[in-house]
From TrEMBL:
Protein name as it appears in the record: Saccharopine dehydrogenase
Species: Selenomonas sputigena (strain ATCC 35185 / DSM 20758 / CCUG 44933 / VPI D19B-28)
Saccharopine dehydrogenase NADP binding domain: residues covered: 5-136
Keyword Ribonucleoprotein in annotation: no
Domain Saccharopine dehydrogenase-like C-terminal span(s) in chain numbering: 140-386
Keywords: Oxidoreductase
Pfam families: Sacchrp_dh_C, Sacchrp_dh_NADP
Single annotated GO MF: saccharopine dehydrogenase (NAD+, L-lysine-forming) activity
InterPro entries in UniProt: NAD(P)-bd_dom_sf (IPR036291), Sacchrp_dh-like_C (IPR032095), Sacchrp_dh_NADP-bd (IPR005097)
EC number(s) from the headed UniProt entry: 1.5.1.7
Length: 399
């Protein structure tokens, strides 16, 4: 039993809040705090009346002082950061100042450079150790469940994992010619960046969307997928012994890519400020303002997601292959919590990570990536809290 402070009130936070309330044995109390308090209040209104006590607060998470006052006032056992990657460091600073555990779902990215990597957050390791508190990084689906799957594969199926392919398929159809399933700014920054994968101890860089494969996803069917750089590659390359190559593929439809190319060509995806009617604006932030709000896609999205990892390595001297994945249905998610599957597949693991840190199942002073903890309690919780996983020992491989 404990109390979580949830920062952010967007698509992912909404699911995490629903799940904390379903899991009221663990989450006796939650405080939802975000920039726009009305969104926190709307969530509270939807969920109040259950066993979990809900409070709300306004906070600018770019300001460490505001966060410290909030944490001192609310006294949570854990802070679950579901704001944007730009706020990771200020929230970690506030957790250090108040000696409170920290959990997030995305690694820090400076707002003015489209480059995400763990180095800034890993630098907090000594300070978290000294303070005797835990920072759990990347407790969403990817990163998140993909790291848990990797730790689980290593623990139960392999002596050594040599190859990992992470496959993220969203076959949902929202009926719009172009919209993003989570924060458009973060999403577009991710997909318009150069791709890269880890091979033989070094990064191999590709042009954006240069490497394409077609994969026949269980319960979904054939989809085009493209190699992207993705943050869990960085930590898995270090934490999975014997690894030779890790790649990440995400599916994109033709309409999405055509629109993205066009928006790129006219400069709408740029993060360089421009002068507009006497004011500086960032084209990508303006684009975000005109695109559909990801939260509004829920009622319109049909179809499934399938996200998982294919591992190849050795067990007892023999070559072995193992595929573990989750299939999630957009409409079923909407029916359950009022959000589509992309928010759902992130919000559920966020709740699970916060629970395991809060109740001490996962403990350790310092900054940890998710694959560094025992995967078993997380794998059990996925089955229990709405993201059941399936496995295959003879999957189709990606060439
Ligand atoms: P949304 O844009 O829907 O929500 C972000 C929320 O953070 C909003 O409520 C926003 O407030 C709030 N926020 C932004 N800036 C501040 C600030 N300075 N102070 C306080 N609150 C702030 O994003 P999502 O819910 O889609 O994503 C949340 C996080 O989850 C992101 O970091 C994203 O990268 C990550 N993610 C991780 C995935 C994974 O699998 N690991 C997958 C998908 C997302 P306001 O309402 O005022 O704008």
């Amino acid at each position: 039993m404990g109390k979580a402070l949830i920062i952010g009130a967007g698509g992912v936070a909404s699911v995490a809040v629903h799940k904390c309330c379903q899991n009221s044995d663990a989450f006796e109390e939650i405080c939802i705090a975000s920039r726009t308090k009305a969104k926190c209040d709307a969530l509270k209104e939807k969920l109040a009346g259950g066993k979990t006590k809900i409070t709300t607060a306004q906070v600018d998470a770019d300001k460490t002082d505001e966060l410290i006052s909030l944490i001192e006032r609310e006294k949570p056992d854990v802070v679950l950061n579901l704001a944007l990657p730009y706020q990771d460091l200020t929230i970690m600073d506030a957790c250090l100042a108040t000696k409170t555990h920290y959990v997030d779902t995305a690694n820090y990215e400076p707002e003015d450079t489209a480059k995400f990597e763990y180095k800034w957050q890993w630098e907090y390791n000594d300070r978290f150790k000294e303070a005797g508190i835990t920072a759990l990084l990347g407790s969403g689906f990817d990163p998140g469940v993909t790291g848990v799957f990797s730790a689980y594969a290593l623990k139960h199926h392999f002596d050594e994992i040599n190859y990992i392919d992470i496959l993220d398929c969203n076959a949902g159809d929202h009926g719009y010619p172009f919209a993003t399933n989570f924060n458009p700014e973060i999403n577009i920054r991710e997909v318009s960046a150069k791709g890269s994968y880890w091979e033989d101890g070094k990064w191999v860089e590709t042009e954006p969307m240069e490497i394409k494969r077609v994969y026949n996803f269980p319960e979904v069917g054939e989809k085009d997928m493209y190699l992207l750089h993705h943050e869990e590659l960085e930590s898995l390359a270090i934490n999975i012994p014997g690894i030779r190559r890790i790649r990440f593929f995400m599916t994109f439809g033709e309409s999405y890519l055509r629109h993205l190319k066009c928006l790129e060509n006219v400069g709408m995806t740029s993060i360089e400020p421009i002068e507009f009617e006497g004011k500086k604006i960032i084209p990508l932030q303006f684009l975000k303002a005109v695109l559909p709000d990801p939260a509004s896609l829920g009622p319109r999205t049909k179809g499934k997601t399938n996200i998982g990892c294919i591992f190849r390595g050795k067990k007892d001297g023999k070559e072995k292959t193992y595929y573990v994945y989750n299939v999630c249905d957009h409409e079923a998610c909407y029916k359950e919590v009022g959000s589509q599957a992309v928010s759902y597949t992130t919000g559920v693991p966020a709740m699970i990570g916060a629970m395991l840190v809060m109740n001490g199942t996962w403990k350790g002073a310092g900054v940890y990536n998710i694959e560094q903890f025992d995967p078993d309690p997380f794998m059990d919780a996925l089955n229990r809290w709405g993201l059941p996983w399936q496995e295959s020992f003879t999957p189709e491989l990606v060439d």
